[in-house]
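Reviewer 2 asked us to include a model.

Predict the structure of this chain.
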Amino acid sequence: MTPQDPALLPVCVANASVVACPDDNKIFIFGGFEYSFGTGKLFNNVIIIDTVTFQVTRPRTAGGTPPSGRHAHSATYWKDGEIILFGGENGEMEENRCVRDLHIYNIRTHVWTRPRTHGRRPKKRGRHAACMSPDRTKLYFCGGLGDGGIDEFIFLADIFCLDLTTMTWSESRPFAARYDHFATVWNDKVWIFGGLTADMEKPAQPVWFDLRTCEIGTVDFLEPPKQPTWRKGDTPEYDEEDTRRSPALEKKPGRHMYVVAGSSVIDITARGPTKGVNYTAIRSFDMARLRWRTLADEDACEMFSEYEWMYAVASPTTADSICLLNSAKVEFQPVEFMTHLLPLDLRYFGAMLDRTGSVSNSENTILSKLPPESLAADLEALLESGEDADFVICTFPDDYDGTLGTGDYKAAATVEIKAHLLILQTRWPHFRRVMGSHMREYHRRQMHIPERYTIVHALMHYLYTGTLPNGIEISVVARVLILSNMYALPRLRDLCAMRMQNEFDVANAPTLWECARVAREPMLQLSAARFCLKHWGRVVRNSGFRGLAKEAMIALCAEIDLEGRVVHGRSWADVTRMDVDEDDAFTVANVDEVDEEDHEEAEDEDGEADAAEETGDGDDEDEDMEEEP
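Predicted model (structure tokens):
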């Protein structure tokens, strides 16, 4: 998105709405005000960015009346190319005039419509948050600022809903007082992140509103070593690699942008408009496990440092990716423009969008009154019982030590799994091809898979139920990942990779890295390698590392970059606890200087030793030592 003619570039606007349209591979931008030149001019034009060709267009309105110029409004993608806009502020400069009108724009036909709604309309507001229900039948709005007179605002602390099937407004309910925040719906709750309170504070805790009980709750993350508490239910878990606190508790200056990724909310912190502020990071909050996780710290986000990034949206084109839009000056132009669109692959940072549907609550909401589905459970019971089985899968026993040759199946394959030909042919493309070729397995009604029983049984469980067995060990999941690659089962590969991504520890990380390498999962391999290198001292002392083949050990060591080095001596924790004289005291801040001094001393000692050898003094010392009893 870097055309030479500035007239083709979109002007960088603040408080605009930027929405991803996944059905059309486009990004929709509307409204906002120009801030770089200080005019505060309001816009009401539409800008569309094609994320396949990276072409920028300003389509003309084909029908209807566009909304007035505004900023601080909300825009939400609905369905079939339709985007719903609500509220905002349409006063220029210091005039604060909020509105509450509702508009729908069709990105395919470029037609504006203003639907007729029923019920009591909500208060006028801007800088609020909006989010769509998973079944796309309800649109929720919460918080924001309302008109309170000239140059004054009213802080709104409510939540209300628009039923999109009947276009009826609901009554408002009390909720948290926030503005400039982010909202999403998950597990029958509306969650809000970030923003500001009436006291201009940046709250640290996510807050939720229960759509079934109308209860309000929050997640408190206390200082270590205390445990974080969950006010309305389960206790949140710790991630061993986390800071064990909410990122907002140690918030640094910067612009926070939020994107939903499955059951997680991604927090991208980029350089803000304040001069000299360059702090960048990517973190995620898992709403299912109630914990923060740092995906990339400041050192890993150098790509952000060049520009001031204004907006972030989920990529409408590529799974597991988000897109950032920047603000930059163009030569001989008085205003700033959006000159670059940066796609970020979340898998590179150790996060993945949930492509399995396991965390989506839309079906649970719609079918909550129906009996639970039992097809998977019935097929699992059929596999376990072996009733009416007409095919046999032969495996190695779990205590198999791998000493037998690959051709000596009769001596090792002592465990059988009774299966059903019709299910395997329907669910397993590789098996269907083998049977279609009338090979030995077809005539014998028997197939040998050279893996241990537990691993092959997990593969059969997936073919019957579409899921991994409950309580399966992570080492077994890693071996199943290899089978999924070998037998071309992409959904099973995704299930295994997502499970392994969050299960690294010093004992299993080398094994998971090796399995990811064999299965050709580069992003998972990279994440495991980063974990190993970060905890290298403990990893190399563990049986998981020592159990690797020599070639695998060398390959893991080669994961470190060319400038990497191992710091000798005590760990930083031991250094900071040392008892030292006052003159020799140092802090963690200058520990690199101490390390350099130690390095220089070591070089001096090596130089003295070399000089001693040249003069022969070293030989005399050795002779004296031999004469001592």
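The radius of gyration is 30 Å. The first strand starts at residue 13 and ends at 14. We have added this to the supplementary material.
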